[in-house]
Amino acid sequence: TGAHGTFTVTDNLTDLTRAKVFAAGEVTPVFVRFSAVVHGNHSPETLRDPRGFATKFYTADGNWDLVGNNFPTFFIRDAIKFPDMVHAFKPDPRTNLDDDSRRFDFFSHVPEATRTLTELYSNSGTPASYREMDGNGVHAYKLINAKGEVHYVKFHWKSLQGLKNLDPKQVVEVQGRDYSHMTN
């Protein structure tokens, strides 16, 4: 699902960057695409899964995509582990069934994943809606101001509606009523 909107800069960020998109008062059209991370199209939106998004900024200097998800940390720090992590999350190729033991087998060797796994297996793994979840940029960015000073930043989106997640009992109730509750 997605949403059109605008990004409006309300504070002066010139101490961090010279990028025009962050100039005070700048208004930039955006489109945000939301999705589940692991599960494919037509899967129930109540499945335990990180929720990903990409914010496309239509700036005067060109388009810029900022990718994130609803967890403040990511599962891995070393990009070489990414293909193995993806395979751990996918259904077992022999049975085509979801299998938590595959995930835990992989992540037992990845101690930096503990915090994010805790988020996934808490109620945060089943958000009630896209409007009631926070967002966190996956990558750190290097911004350079007019003086040539370097600043490393991460982007975070904070819900103005507050956070709301489904507990296991609510998951069953919601899925029974609305297969696509986050998109509808």
From TrEMBL:
Family annotation (PROSITE patterns): CATALASE_3
GO annotation (BP), single: hydrogen peroxide catabolic process
GO MF terms held by the record: catalase activity; heme binding
Cofactor(s) this protein cannot do without: heme
SUPFAM superfamilies: Heme-dependent catalase-like
A GO cellular-component term linked to this record: cytoplasm
Span of domain Catalase core: 1-184
SMART domains linked: Catalase (SM01060)
One Pfam entry name: Catalase
EC number of the protein: 1.11.1.6
PANTHER family with a match to the protein in the record: CATALASE, CATALASE-2
Annotated protein name in UniProt: catalase
